[in-house]
Amino acid sequence: MGDDDISIDEKRVYGDKTGTTVLFVATGAGLARVEISDDLVGEFGLVHRGGVRDVAGSGGRLAVATDDDVRLGTGDAFRPTGFGPAAAVGWHEGALHAAGDGRVARFGPDGDPAVGGADEPVAGDWSTCCELTDVRALAGDMVAAADGLFRLDGTRLGLADARDAAPEVPLAATGDGLYYLGNGWMDALPGNVRAVTAAPDGRAHAATSDALHVRSSAADGYGPDAWAEVDLPAAGHVVDVAHGPDATFAVTAEGTVLANAGDGWRDRSLGLPDVRRLAVPGVGLG
């Protein structure tokens, strides 16, 4: 099937083929579901229409931050939770968290979120963890906000103008650079860093306003000498990066999805505007 034969529509595009990874991409037009086979970017389609600001997956569940609510589902239908408009969503120790309207809150579901009608609210309650404004991202137990980096309970971790975090290291993406935690927060990369991610196997990527950077597999630590610029096949501004078990995925603001399973980067344009985030939910979605 050629590029011109695939259309954007609301139907689910199933990804149950062997060796297929499913990505979800948050865009201004909606949530896109994208199939990746090895490093070939294949079929895609919208599974939720309307502005989506963030998306995060865990254990077969997918949380979506939309202009009107946090929605919870399993990949093809997303039910409201009653949070209200959200800027960011994330998972920590199996629990869903969201940020919006000056607060970070935790959702306690009552029953199985997968059971119920598409428009039926997920039974459960939101409990406030802390009060924070202008939250940009939730990553594990870290909150990246305009005022800096915080824990979910509001404990301040330092820095300013935080954009993203990788709690595994930890790494922090900010408006003036990438930092890693050593003897305090140490310089890793200069520039406006939009996104950062790290995998348990040592892989790490960071996206600045003009380039994608990768941590060298031979690097000792995460300092300035550890990072190299990635030569990508497509122009655009990378806004998010994610790791799968055997591949790395990225997406640009202009709507190009990129994948690298070890033999170089492949790319494909989705033709969707205002791309913000991507998620690789893993087992149970696809």
UniProtKB/TrEMBL annotation:
Organism superkingdom: Archaea
InterPro entries: Beta-prop_HVO_0234
Pfam families in alphabetical order: Beta-prop_HVO_0234
HVO-0234-like beta-propeller domain boundaries: 7-280
Protein name: HVO-0234-like beta-propeller domain-containing protein
Species this protein is from: Haloglomus irregulare
